[in-house]
Amino acid sequence: MDTSVVSAENIKIRIESRAATAGIIGLGYVGLPLAVAAAKAGYAVLGFDVDQSKVEALNAGNSYIEAVPEPSLREQVAVGRFEATADFARLASCDVVVICVPTPLTKQREPDLSFVEQTASAIARNRKPGALIILESTTWPWTTETVVKNILEADGTKSGRDFFLGFSPEREDPGNASFRTVTIPKIVSGDGADAQALVEAFYGNVVERIVPVSSPRVAEAVKITENIFRAVNIALVNELKIIYDAMDIDVWEVIDAAATKPFGFMPFYPGPGLGGHCIPIDPFYLTWKAREYNVPTRFIELAGEINVAMPRYVISRLEVALDKSFAKSLSASKVLILGLAYKKNVPDIRESPAFAIMDMLKARGTTFDYHDPHVPSIPRTREHEQYYGQRSVGLDAATISSYDAVVLVTDHDDVDYGLVAAKAKLVLDTRNALGKRGFSGETVVKA
């Protein structure tokens, strides 16, 4: 009898009956919501993370992710369906292992798969025979079928026989109240028919809708395509903003009017640059991989150049506005950064353009502070260690009026924009947050 079929059938029975134990590696914005969703679906879930402080917080029922309310987490901890651990030897008890670790870029803007590689090596040392292993981290096409598979097979075991391998890209959107982990359609794929069936069985029990595709490389390409689509369109409206500014045309008015067309147009809006864990990073994964095939990616790279240049454009607009309003240089000015998170209504600061703006202000000798209701203090990060511990200042009339300019980077809803408009000497609004609320005047400059 074909032992691979028996093994696949056995693990499928455990998955379908929810008798399987699921291990989720990486308990951040992707891993923790998935872990709680899997626990709610009836699985026993072990959450793995190298950060012991996260492990202790989660086991105490304390959530650090807004998408995971503490009552939901505490319920799963209390009934014994969720436990966090830093002991990767416990992977040996997991029937399903899902990898949700970061895939950043190097300083040379090349893919950094070190977290994925280290995780795959840990799984190879500790995995349960016949385990289903799924990568969720965004990466270039063929990563699952080459990099991850090669590491897992280095000991002589084989995918589809001794373990099963799949890819299912995360599609989390922090702060989006309309969609959550279980309601976002899930792209699923496997390395072979048995793996495909197991991946479908697992996610089919956790989320409302699965979308099977033919291979992991297709699923990897789906995720990168989604984010390139956004990156390119945002670059387009960012470039239009610069063009229309020169023509004394309000790009936000143009886009809002164009959006009334019921077909053939999808509105995207400009900003101070791209942020978050996906859109500023993922397109460069494809441009890097495309070089292996001698295929140019001019369109994608141009979009990246435009988006990366936007913080510098904001600084140039600020410099002109200060000189025009007060005949004051940037170096002699005091500036308040309004909003540190990369998008509104979340505490997520990953790749936030606010940091690029702060770096440029610091280089010019400008005195600056920040206010963000969602980021009371700046956590330690790999890229911006120099700002660790800096605290958000209050946003009262006296504080606002003490600055020469307020640079609005993130348009959080829970900000008193009327107070900002009334008390700020100058507002550089990169999101049209004041304009769409009806605040305008000589002290408000769109950028």
TrEMBL record:
UDP-glucose/GDP-mannose dehydrogenase C-terminal domain mapped to chain residues: 336-436
GO biological process: polysaccharide biosynthetic process
InterPro entries, per the entry: 6-PGluconate_DH-like_C_sf, NAD(P)-bd_dom_sf, UDP-Glc/GDP-Man, UDP-Glc/GDP-Man_DH_C, UDP-Glc/GDP-Man_DH_C_sf, UDP-Glc/GDP-Man_DH_dimer, UDP-Glc/GDP-Man_DH_N, UDP_ManNAc/GlcNAc_DH
Record flagged with keyword Oxidoreductase: yes
SUPFAM superfamilies: 6-phosphogluconate dehydrogenase C-terminal domain-like, NAD(P)-binding Rossmann-fold domains, UDP-glucose/GDP-mannose dehydrogenase C-terminal domain
GO molecular function: NAD binding; oxidoreductase activity, acting on the CH-CH group of donors, NAD or NADP as acceptor; oxidoreductase activity, acting on the CH-OH group of donors, NAD or NADP as acceptor
Superkingdom in the source lineage: Bacteria
Keywords assigned: NAD, Oxidoreductase
One Pfam entry name: UDPG_MGDP_dh_N
NCBIfam families associated with the record: NDP-sugDHase (TIGR03026)
UniProt family annotation: Belongs to the UDP-glucose/GDP-mannose dehydrogenase family.
UniProt name for this protein: UDP-glucose/GDP-mannose dehydrogenase
Organism: Chelativorans sp. (strain BNC1)
